Amino acid sequence: MQAKPRRLATRTTTIIVIAIVAIVIVSGGGTYYYINYVAPRPITCTLPSGRDAITVGFTISQTGKYNVEGTKSLAGIQAAACWVNNNGGVTVNGKTYNIILDYHDDASLQDNISPLYNTIITQDHAQFLLAPYSSILTGSAATVAEQNNLVMLSHGGSADSIWTKGYKNVFGVLSPASTYFNYAIDWLKANHPGDKLAFLHADDSFSAAASVAASRYAVQQGLTMVYNDSYPSMGTQDLSAQLTKAQVAGADDLLGGGHYDDGLKIVQQLSSVGWKPKFISLLVAVTEPQFRQQLGGAANLVTGPSQWETIVTYSPATAQAAGIPWYGPTESQFVDYYSKQANAGSPTYHSGEAGAAIIVLADAIEKANSLDTTAVRQTLYGLHIMTFFGQFQVDPTGKQIGHSMVFVQWQSGGLAVVAPSLVASGIVKYPYTGS
Amino acid sequence: MVAAELIVRDLVFGLMLGCVFSVVAHGLNIIWGVVKVVNIAHGEFIMLGAYGAYFLNLFAGLTPLETAPVDAGIGLLVGYAFYYAFLHRELHNKEMITLQSEMVTLVATFGLSLFISNLAIILFTGNPVGIIYNPGILQFGYLTVPLAALYVAILSVLIIAGTWLFLERTFIGSAIRAYAQDVTATELVGADPAKVASLATALGFAVTMAGGALLTVWVPVGINPLMGALYAPISFVIVVLGGPGKMWGSLVGGLTLGIVIDLVQAFASAQIAYAAAFLILIPVLVFRPKGILK
Q1: Residue numbers of A between 223 and 242 with CB closer than 8 Å to B
Q2: What is the ipTM of this complex?
């Protein structure tokens, strides 16, 4: 066997080396270009180092009856905290702090609230609190916040009764329950004043506050109410008797519901009793994408109130026009943080209101320039700002008075904002067809 | 006219609801009547039956009606295991159940109830789930009858009739009835009391879990680890109303409860209807302590 000439072997080696170097340069450069210019840049939420921490404690319903709303709320809180930490943190007396979230799953059970909040306060040493999701759980958490004199922001509890108990430390970020159905009633008054209304709601504090206020408002507006009833919020699955009574009473329209499960079972059981109201407006459930996924065509043209939708864009320019300061991420930044960091799809109004609670708290701490409860509490009472969620301003009881709601309707598989007209993406379609 | 219309509708819905209540309580009735054990974990086995139906629907696409026999088969095995794990040691070689045995089995099944519900929270989470099953409606003038509830009602009555036939017309059934009346006599005629009692327990569990599967039609978004806490008391009331050990008593008690709940709702709130349904237990206990049926 004859050996290769030495020169030829050297040249082959050189070519191979050059090829390897070229491949490394091209692939490395390509990777660098892809990561920096092509691939979506993930928003990292590793806490910036060299800062102290502000611990914000809360429970959230990751499981149980309120799991749909709770999961969305948690993702909103995480997205907002991430934005604050990535955008300079919270500055107090020239020192910068990270917001650290300390949360536990309350399984949607009222019995879990008091022990868990006591753990959060006494063992985890939370400095500020967020309320759990729902009015009933918020009511339980509020007493613990008051006993321990800690500021608590409510993002998922809107029953007006929360602010009638003389609490000093509980501040609502969202509009109170008594205003939820105002757009629905206004629309019916303007377009179908002859319709007869039925109200059917769960008997928990939020659902009762929303529906009772709505029925009063409807009567004030001259509308006719032919049925008004409640059912036990815990355990009731069969609503056929109530729906039948409403139908037999001659109702044209149905308003009410409760939380996510309530909305779902009301629409499901309408077909069982063979009733197709002309207009349906339900609390909470309607804004969740799962509502449409689980009900299919039966969800079409169902309306409901919403605290916030991504289509409603508040911006620094809006704040400037209103003559109030702006704080926090823009709506698109919040959506970006939410979808990328929290990996939770699109935010719903539960995500928005929960995220807004963190943003408002961060701004209040900065404006108070203190971590002291009394200072932050006083600041919150006087705070009037705009965030991506809308305005924040509370009355002397801590109840929200600055924020405005919107009115939505499922139309051809999408959720359209149908009121107020200033931000509407469509108009109310009537009557409900059930498919 | 409107009131009459409302009453007819609520009566029909009450009858259908009562049928499914009956079958849910029937399993408890069999165990209580034959083995003389009050199964405090009854609600948890209803819950397991409902979850069985949910998962069979999720993974195999079965309807609640189709899942009922599968759940019943699982219930048979679970019932046997339950008897030998929790009851056999306390009951065998005893001619009649004593107060001590009652207390032991009561506490044992109470512990089991807590264990199952907490394990279910870990395994299934507390998130309520449900089965969407809507085969349509029947329309009779103003009266609308959902077919799902109608099918479930028919199947419930068939299950109760089936267990009655089994107990009345088969040799094993006769042995079970003999055991219910006199354990010693059962032994004297050559039947093994432990085998008879285990079979009765297995039958009770089969019916309970099938009832849990059928109940899913009435709980569209309500299958959760704690649902037993609602349906166990309802089952106890039904058995007491009908009379423990009386096979048709389950149906009488269930229909009574279902009709009262739905009819009262025609004139009052749901809260009052449930209170009224439980309230009828008092006169029944005073005037007919052995149940409505003779």
Answers
A1: 229-232, 235-238, 240-242
A2: 0.71
